[in-house]
TrEMBL record:
Keyword Chloroplast: no
Pfam families associated with the record: DUF6069
Residues annotated as transmembrane: 17-39, 59-80, 87-105, 111-132
Keywords assigned: Membrane, Transmembrane, Transmembrane helix
Top-level taxonomic group: Bacteria
InterPro entries referenced in this protein's UniProt entry, alphabetically: DUF6069 (IPR045713)
Organism phylogeny: Bacteria, Bacillati, Actinomycetota, Actinomycetes, Micromonosporales
Protein name (Swiss-Prot/TrEMBL): Cell envelope biogenesis protein OmpA
Keyword Transmembrane found: yes
Length: 137
């Protein structure tokens, strides 16, 4: 009985640490993608896609939304996967690769497409390792 209570407490604190780390990584990644987009725009790269301009804040917002979805995936895998870290890294690398597809086919210039893809990779490079470190191997 005591072992069960200890195990439950350890699992709860592990999930709590995972979520805290994920939220912090999300904030950092959102700021980083906005900085990359702003730097690209300042360097003369258009943020226009399909005739509409993407606001720099939009990069941060979408990064936050999809990063938090990644944190939720990590929390689920920590509970249900036999090897949560491995499953998380594989899943998120595939999802990151798939996230580049819309950028490739977007109605935008080549430099804009490259900037969009760079922001995806920057976010992934920040969030995936930070969250993966909190998962059991």
């Amino acid at each position: 009985m005591t072992t069960t209570a200890t195990t439950t407490r350890a699992t709860t604190s592990t999930v709590g640490a995972l979520i805290r780390t994920g939220v912090i990584a999300t904030v950092v990644a959102s700021a980083a993608t906005m900085a990359v987009a702003a730097a690209g725009h300042a360097a003369g790269i258009s943020l226009d896609m399909g005739g509409a301009s993407i606001p720099v804040s939009g990069f941060g917002t979408l990064t936050a939304v999809f990063s938090l979805i990644g944190v939720a995936i990590a929390a689920l895998l920590s509970r249900f996967a036999r090897r949560p870290r491995r499953a998380f890294v594989r899943t998120t690398v595939v999802l990151t690769a798939l996230s580049l597809v819309p950028d490739v086919i977007a109605d935008a210039g080549t430099a804009t497409k490259a900037l969009l893809m760079l922001t995806h990779l920057v976010a992934a490079a920040i969030v995936i390792p930070a969250v993966a470190r909190r998962l059991a191997a």
